[in-house]
Design a protein that fits this description.
Number of domains: 2
Pathway: Amino-acid degradation; L-histidine degradation into L-glutamate; N-formimidoyl-L-glutamate from L-histidine: step 1/3
Mean pLDDT: 94
CATH class of the largest domain: Mainly Alpha
Catalytic activity: L-histidine = trans-urocanate + NH4(+)
Helix content: 40-55%
Order of helices and strands: EHEHHEHHEEHEEHHHHHHHHEEHHHHHH
Low-confidence stretches: none
Pfam families: Lyase_aromatic
Keywords: Histidine metabolism, Lyase
CATH superfamily of the largest domain: Fumarase/aspartase (Central domain)
Structural class: mainly alpha
CATH topology of the largest domain: Fumarase C, Chain A, domain 2
Shape: elongated
Subcellular location: Cytoplasm
Number of strands: 9
Length: 518
């Protein structure tokens, strides 16, 4: 099978751009090292080799690791030291981690190597780049990282592939021994020199890669949640007066103002909204789930942007221990502790659960005749004979309940390890893993709201919805999510809606009408 060569990403001494990470992780972009990076790598390597030749022990270069750091390792055993480190730390267990996560952590580790603060050889860094370019993905397992001393086990499984050991997936996704996959790609494994094993495994790259992908996904999903909220306000005959800019200005929270402005733009030109706009007796105040959507969505947006600030700082970091400083000193440090990343991963799981929760509440209002402003019970074709979308809301509720459980912070836990040398850890990898499940759950919950609101808008005919929301209804119908009628097999329709939400198709369809949303 032949594969087109996607665009190349160049890794230099500066931070990886989030867009470049997405290109490598999700779209298979090739990777190369800049000449500046290679010079920096060579400069740091010369420092390590000088220390390796010295009689004085230097941690990570001529000693053991962690609680075994007191042993000075003789020169003739140091190649074995590096192999032993990688082999013993490649101790993950459980299901395989997704390809995009492994590629993200490999790229981020390469970025740290390229800073010239880790002391690896250029051929080691170049081989890591080559694995990415050839689509060779080491098998990494769900369990094994405590988020301190870096994502040790996940990164060790990647380092194992560099020495030609362990299983990998090739560019076609086939499981193969690393040595075989490297040979097929014309690549030669490396024999790790002093310090290299430690430099390859001592970073927050797994949790950071998952954070960056979650940020990208949530930025899209929160704007899609604005679309869903607008459709619900419209189809439930709610008021849009509460989204007015002058009201938002009284509470200048940035995300709230952006979300409210989005709702106003999405609802522009709606006959449904116009039909009751002057009814100031029965439409004075809507339920919180409608009226306060910008406040909840906006707070979530602000949280995402805080997380992005932390991620940007982490991208600009050289996380390793010990590190080679610009003046040639090699210093131990604690920068591998994942607390900054772990905290925001947990924070994002909290807001993800809450945005899903308010989405489910808006959906539920459609199904209750007492609250839906004369829509049929459960939006059913023949209520009693038909159940309509009753159980679609059950599915939503089940997901929301799971998201609330996933919102329990991982970073408040710590289990000491390494004979109490590593006596406080971040659990940031665990925080990242559960956030990925949370983001998937949010897409599913918002999708059910969108398909429910679309059915309700059809039931408001002959009043026409806003051009933007009408475009979403049309998109759903084109992809097999049918309108009102007798009961049918719903699971395929839900999955179709989920696909349209998760891919960004719902958002882009709206933005084709409104222009780019904030």
């Amino acid at each position: 099978m032949t594969h087109p060569h996607p665009p190349s990403v160049t890794v230099g001494t500066g931070p990886v751009r989030p867009d470049d990470l997405l290109a490598v992780a999700r779209r298979g972009a090739r990777v190369e090292l800049s000449e500046e990076a290679l010079v920096a790598i060579d400069r740091a390597r010369s420092v390590v080799e000088e220390l390796a030749a010295a009689p004085t022990p230097a941690y990570g270069i001529s000693t053991g690791f962690g609680a075994l750091a007191t042993r000075h390792i003789p020169v003739e055993m140091r190649a074995q030291l590096q192999r032993s480190l990688v082999r013993s730390h490649a101790a993950g267990s459980g299901p395989e981690v997704e390809r995009e996560v492994v590629r993200a952590l490999m790229l981020l580790r390469l970025s740290t190597l390229a800073t010239g603060h880790t002391g690896v050889r250029r051929e080691t860094a170049q081989l890591l780049a080559a694995l990415l370019s050839h689509g060779i993905t080491p098998v990494v397992h769900e369990y094994g990282s405590l988020g301190c001393s870096g994502d040790l086990a996940p990164l060790s499984h990647c380092a194992l592939a560099l020495i030609g050991e362990g299983p990998v997936r090739d560019v076609d996704g086939q499981l193969r021994p690393a040595a075989e996959a490297l040979a097929a790609a014309g690549l030669t494994p490396v024999e790790l020199g002093a310090k290299e094993g430690l430099a390859l495994i001592n970073g927050t790259d797994g949790m950071l890669g998952m954070l960056l992908m979650a940020i990208a996904d949530l930025r899209m999903l929160l704007r899609t949640a604005d679309v869903a909220a607008a459709m619900s306000v419209e189809a439930q005959l709610g008021t849009d007066r509460v989204f007015a800019a002058e009201l938002q200005a009284l509470r200048p929270q940035v995300g709230q103002g952006l979300s409210a402005a989005n709702l106003v733009r999405i609802l522009a030109g709606s006959e449904v909204m116009a039909s009751h706009r002057e009814d100031k007796v029965h439409r004075v105040q809507d339920a919180y789930s409608l009226r306060c959507s910008p406040q909840v969505h906006g707070a979530a947006r602000d949280t995402v942007e805080h997380a992005a600030t932390v991620a940007d700082r982490e991208l600009a970091s050289a996380v390793d221990n010990p590190v080679v400083l610009d003046d040639g000193r090699v210093m131990s440090n604690g920068n591998f502790h994942g607390a900054p990343v772990a905290y925001v991963l947990d924070f994002l799981a909290i807001v993800t659960a809450d945005v899903a929760s308010i989405s489910e509440r808006r959906t539920d209002r459609f199904l209750d005749r007492a609250r839906s402003h004369d829509l049929p019970p459960f939006l059913a074709g023949d209520p009693g004979v038909d159940s309509g979308l009753m159980i679609a809301q059950y599915t939503q509720a089940a997901i929301v309940s799971e998201l609330k459980r996933l919102a329990t912070p991982a970073s408040v836990d710590s289990i000491p390890s390494s004979a109490m040398q590593e006596d406080h850890v971040s659990m940031g990898w665990n925080a990242a893993r559960k956030l990925r499940r949370s983001v998937d759950g949010l897409a599913r919950v918002v999708a059910v709201e969108v398909m429910t609101a679309a059915r309700a808008l059809d039931l408001r005919a002959p009043l026409a919805p806003a051009p933007a929301t009408a475009a979403v209804v049309a998109l759903l119908r084109e992809h097999g999510v049918e309108g009102p009628g007798t009961d049918r097999f719903l699971a395929p329709e839900i999955e179709a809606a989920v696909g349209l939400v998760a891919s960004g198709a719902v958002l882009s369809t709206v933005e084709n009408v409104t222009g780019e949303l904030a």
